[in-house]
Amino acid sequence: MKAAILHGKHALTVETVPDAALQAPGDAVVRVVVAGICGTDLHGYRGLPGPVTGPRCGHEFVGVVEDIGGEVSTLRPGTMVVAPFNFADGTCSACLTGSHNACAAGGMFGVQGDGAQAEAVRVPFADANLVAVPVDENDERLPSLLTLTDTMATGLHAIKTGRVAPGSSVAVVGDGPVGMCAVLAARDAGAARIILVGRHEARLSKGKEFGATDTFNAQGSEGVAESVDYVHTATQGVGADVVVECGGGPQAQDTAFAMCRAGGAVCVMGSPPIGDVTPVFLRGITLTGGLTPARAYLPELVERVLAGTLAPGSIFEKTVALDDIVSGYEAMDARTASKVLVLP
């Protein structure tokens, strides 16, 4: 079968690799119908620190079950399924409390498991991870379903852990796909004021479509400071109840703390490391967020997409074939697309 292979910085090829195959009785083999390129993949492509180091890559996919192990009881070949980006055993104490991301037996596709930017994927603990969806391979909702594997689940995780309530004020730092999905989740949670801060006018405009009540373009040398002032002005000098940080790194976190009201919450959804957390102590700010237990949110999110009440699929700005996946990475690297859908 074909799969994307990362050899190093800006060195990505599509090669023939051994077919995905069952290795344990709880496994399933899933033929990939649609896959995504994530910002985490882009970090690896750029040679930056992070979990994606190659050779296999990709952790977002929707597909059709092709084969199952002898202990798989909830799935049958031919079933369309959505997979969380991080697989887990579903039985440990972490999984049973909804923290699938902390499962000691689990991992991330494309890192500890098969890469999803391929024609097929072996899925460990298939019963615990795969969620069946009653759609076919031509369903127009496939892009929205694909967002649930990671990006939309991550946006929802921020809003859930930040305990956004009806009437809340929310600031979202970062206008990439996760930021967009956090805006969408904040809107659905009933937030009264949703301020999206970014540096790309087209994305900020899309943020309005997703539910942002305000947007602020933080370009320029004073953009960060001005964005903090904007949030405080918009919240009568108090600061936002909840700030969702999607940029990654200490500078973005510092900005989030500065935007947050005393006693509020900052949800760190960007990449580590975590910077200075003094505001947590001095200003009573709750620090939350972190790696998303995507599987915990999939049933709720799938139900809403199928019902037509959630449609985040427009975050995909470009579609490429697997054979042409390099062009998808190049588009994201050049910032001409914020997220790319891949068709094997």
TrEMBL record:
This is Threonine dehydrogenase and related Zn-dependent dehydrogenase. Pfam families: ADH_N, ADH_zinc_N. InterPro entries: ADH-like_C, ADH-like_N, ADH_Zn_CS, GroES-like_sf, NAD(P)-bd_dom_sf. GO terms for molecular function: oxidoreductase activity; zinc ion binding. Keywords: Metal-binding, Oxidoreductase, Zinc. Its cofactor is Zn(2+). Belongs to the zinc-containing alcohol dehydrogenase family. Residues 177-305 form the Alcohol dehydrogenase-like C-terminal domain. It comes from the Bacteria. Residues 25-127 form the Alcohol dehydrogenase-like N-terminal domain. It comes from Amycolatopsis keratiniphila.
